[in-house]
Amino acid sequence: MAGLNATLGEECELAGIAMERATQALLQADLAIAEQVITDHEKITVLSADAEEQAFALLALQAPVAGDLRAIVSGFQIVADVDRMGALALHVAKVARRRHPAHALPEEVNGYFAEMGRLAVKMARAAREVLNSQDPTDAIQLREDDDAMDDLHRHLFTVLMDREWRHGVAAAVDVTLLGRYYERFADHAVLIGRRVVFQATGKTPEQFQEAEERLEDDYI
Amino acid sequence: MAGLNATLGEECELAGIAMERATQALLQADLAIAEQVITDHEKITVLSADAEEQAFALLALQAPVAGDLRAIVSGFQIVADVDRMGALALHVAKVARRRHPAHALPEEVNGYFAEMGRLAVKMARAAREVLNSQDPTDAIQLREDDDAMDDLHRHLFTVLMDREWRHGVAAAVDVTLLGRYYERFADHAVLIGRRVVFQATGKTPEQFQEAEERLEDDYI
């Protein structure tokens, strides 16, 4: 089981690195870095297949019960999430490549994407950490960075919708899709956090928090 | 196992109905229908939870082996796909509600969305059917409608990028996101088809097709 979660954690790390580089490629219109993300994507796909195989082996060979069963099933679901995170980083890199040598982003939104990139990378690392630690409280914390991501995403739309937007429709379409890729990347990291809570406690994050609060009340 | 797939099939049906109505709400700026999709979304969420419970019960109580194990694990993955299809239909309905009483879509792209809606609904129904029939050949066919969806999606972007676009940036942003919702809905239907191939044959669609072609060659 620890082996499966370690593979999933490694995959989160790679997805985070991919998003970090894709963001760099996007902000600096750097073709070489974009190409590297695109080439390296294969590694993420391989880890997804590895993780599924490990999970099947655990299910088939060890006839697991209750807690282990829950953890393995969550493992299958986490594969789908982290695989998607990798695909979203790949999408970002492809936009950077498609627009090169031009910048895909108008300069006025660079700051938003630098910050959304920073949050996305931070969340991928946090997902890796909670996969290893199985700490449900840390796993729930992923939601806070996601709230920050959602705020940025909302602000980005106000910039787009502003009458002062002078970069045309094509740039607006790119910014819209790119914004969505970062936001979905963060959503999947949050889902991984939720699934770790379930792996570790058998509860949804809501049930877990409620139980914790009841416990605190008992000690007051 | 048939019970689990029936629940998943029912959920596909509901996701298809949601997308059908959401498209109608979008094209006709019909607030009542949009609201209905939003209210009915709860039913899809409930079916997701039902399906996961059924899958856990099958895993835990029947200690399944090989084929059944594969089918149940695929069941968990299908839940995630169909749940997402429901969420994407909900997103479409919410855009229709947000823009009401205005139409979210400029009239010149109505035809694209009518057709993307028709394909999405057809694919949700096909996903339901292959979940019930477990026919791998039909399950692979879902890719063809997805190719048609991708074509429409690409054409939609040419309309958006055209210098003649006179509907402003806000409409372009809506059209971009809406187009993506339909395209992702179709992607998830294709994924369900892939997972049914795996449920039924233990092979990926690529492995299954290769084996079929070898079989045909043997008979020539």
From TrEMBL, chains A, B:
GO terms for biological process: intracellular phosphate ion homeostasis; negative regulation of phosphate metabolic process; phosphate ion transport. It comes from Gordonia jinhuaensis. Keywords: Cytoplasm, Phosphate transport, Transport. It is found in: Cytoplasm. Homodimer. This is Phosphate-specific transport system accessory protein PhoU. The keyword DNA-binding does not apply. It comes from the Bacteria. Its main location: cytoplasm. Transmembrane segments: none annotated.
